[in-house]
Design goal:
By secondary structure, this protein is an alpha/beta fold. It is built from seven helices and ten strands. The protein has a seven-stranded mixed β-sheet with strand order 6-5-4-7-8-10-9, sandwiched between helices. Helix 4 links the parallel strand 5 and strand 6.
Length: about 210
Amino acid sequence: MATEQILQGVLFQSYSGFDKSFLFMSTLPIQDTMVSEDLFLKTELDAGIHHENGAFVHLCHATAQEVKGLDIKTVMDYGCGTGVYSYAFMNEGFDVVAWEKFDAHKYYLCEKLPQIKIVDKPITTDLMLFIEVAEHMTDKELDKLFKTIQPKYILFSSTSERTAWDLAWGHINVKEQSEWLKFFESKNYKLVRDVKVPTEWSKLFERV
């Protein structure tokens, strides 16, 4: 069972039987516009969201294990950030490509994880990693994305927590989990199951 605590303005989660701590929200300034790409990246790195943090890498490998056994060979990590999920899925034997919007993150990936293949535009793969990204997108952007690609599976996570840092952190489209279920149903995806990692609200969807 997940337990949560607010620590110095940062929302962490810890799972019993799983030694990890990772960032959900940070000590970003409370403001009406999103922070710069560079500050966004720095905040993630300072919180341990990188490939040198063993606990976070372990979490990403555990996430990859959740889809082992399914008919999945190719993976796109959409909004890959610092690339740790891509890195873990590659090490678990999947053929991975990554798509990222922010130049600051892409430069970081090229320097720190050059083995990750970055694509210029989203492509259809067997599995799409869609982890803590959807809340950063408008409904119009989401509709456009799913008119462009049709992955067989989607490993999805999007927080329903609302905080004073949402605008600074770029959370412009926070939805209840029931709303996300309706959204994916409208895109011809069915819920396969809830997934234990990487967050308490993770879900696996399959195209029907």
